[in-house]
Amino acid sequence: MSLLQDLRATSLLKLLKAREITAEEITAAVLGKISEVDKQINAYITVTGEQALAQARQADRALARGGDIPPLAGVPMGIKDNICTAGVKTTCGSLMLAGYTPHYSATAVERLGQAGAVMAGKTNLDEFGLGNTNKTSYFGATRNPLDPARMPGGSSGGSAAAVAAGEASFALGTDAGGSIRQPASYCGVVGLKPTFGLVSGYGVIDFAPSLDTVGPLTLDVQDCALVLQAMAGRDPLHPMTEGAVAPDYSSFLGRDIRGLKIGLVREYFGPEIAPGVKSRVLAAAEKLDQLGTIVEETSLPHAAYAAAAYLVISTAEAFSNLSNFDGVRFGHRTGGQDLHNMYRRTRFEAFGPDLRQKLIFGALVLGAGHYEEYFVQAQKIRTLIKRELKESLRRYDLLLTPATPDPAPALANDDSLAMRNQDMCLLPANLAGLPAITLPCGSLDNLPVGLQFMAAPYAEGLLLQVACALEQQLARPWA
User: Fold this and answer.
1) Distances (CA, A) of 72 to 5, 54, 223, 380, 440
2) Which one-letter DSSP state was computed for residue 452?
3) CB count, 10 Å around CB of 294?
4) Which residues, listed in sequence order, are joined to residue 235 by a DSSP beta bridge?
């Protein structure tokens, strides 16, 4: 097996420690792969080749010294382009920030750098993270490497595509409404949305601060545990991490899962789910049963309202949070006859049509006469969903759903309602701030099908434990 056929971090680290390869050779190979395939895939907005090679040489020097080496020494990664990186452009996939270079890095990036990871570049995304197709980026659509005529999903589609195409060992994404887990499912990789507040959001240009979470996309569950370990924990720069505690996540892998109770959420196995997806997720549930878990059907009656509540809350927060991008302080500016005219022309020119539509909707639901009718009601639904999930996770260790109703849709698909429904299984975890993981569980028409586990707050270890046990029972015919 050649190097680029096994880019798992665990495999690369074994080769590096055995001195069978150098970090510089790995990085050069990944940069070569990007040069070879990314013109078609468009997973990256910015490739940081020289910087990556310099970081790789630093990792090689650490390896040569011996002793304890950083846990991700020499492992190449991609960073979603709404996560700040010092001295490297951070565009959010938008003309508004096409020339913006931060002077600091996000905490998650800093910690991965301290762990020895090598940044290959910044990955493509839906503009400012509002989307689930990766078609709305100012820098062009990303294509699914398993079938370039199909979407990789979004908004972390560039990160998922980079990992699936061998253009990175792992990548960072952000997840406000399934934006890590949905593209992971479409591209046949593992995607983890941590508990809200476990991984610092400092340095992330998020659009919905109460929903967005940084998380990893990896080739397998073992790598997911390694990357999460490097990022997680309290950050004095981000108050939401005050209660964050990060155990040794790798220590959960390989533990017996017999006796654990897993709830199949009835509402997510209805007619909206493609029969082939449903059958493969249920087949995975049977494997869990064979491994000794207790799988039972359960219900989340208010889950049907999650999409509507998410739409209102996320666009309202986006309207508020993106109001500072006005052409005055930084970012793109279009001249105007007066200040008001300059604001209007700048935002119309620098924001794409899909983003403008969502911001207008956010303004509407926060406006006089609509705030109580829409925004307050959405927050009430959010509370009901959180209560239901909390109660259900008292009875069950994990909840199991499909990741998406269908495999990756065609890139030409313009059915916005159908695309919005692709996140239906994923949204409750964001509204409740819960951890959730997706992993491939089969294929349909040669495209991966994903399933999702949800757990109680800070139960990432349990998620990884069960996901790893199941992963070992599943084949990946597309890999």
Assistant:
1) 19, 16, 10, 42, 24
2) E
3) 14
4) 238
Distances from the Cα of 465 to the Cα of 131, 152, 157, 397, 460, angstroms: 31, 27, 26, 12, 8
Q: Cα–Cα distance between 402 and 386 in angstroms, integer?
A: 19
Structure tokens belonging to residue 313: 């809350």
Q: What is the pLDDT of residues 15-65, one digit of tens each?
A: 999 999 999 999 999 999 999 999 999 999 999 999 999 999 999 999 998
Q: What is the pTM of this model?
A: 0.96
150-154, 255-259, 338-342, 460-464: least confident range: 338-342
- Residue 104: count of CB within 10 angstroms of its CB: 14
As a whole number, mean pLDDT of residues 340-366 equals 93
Burial label for 395, CB within 10 Å (0-12, 13-18, 19+), is: exposed
Residue 477: predicted pLDDT: 56
CA-based R_g, the chain, Å:
21
**246: which 2 tokens?**
């990060």
Task: Give the span between the Cα atoms of 348 and 84, in whole angstroms.
Answer: 24
Q: Give the tokens for residue 430.
A: 């964001």
Kindly report the length of the chain. Answer: 479
CB atoms < 10 A from the CB of 32, how many? 11
Q: Return the bridge partners of 150, or none.
A: 410
Give me the residues paired with residue 454 across strands: 399, 436
Find residue 60's DSSP bridge partners: none
Q: Which residues belong to the active site?
A: 80, 155, 179
Strand segments, DSSP code E, in 51-117 are 76-80
On the question of pLDDT at 423 being above 90, the answer is yes
Query: How distant, in Å, are the alpha carbons of 32, 102, 145, 262 from that of 39?
Result: 12, 26, 11, 43
How much is the mean pLDDT over the chain?
95
Neighbours of 18 (CB within 10 A): 8
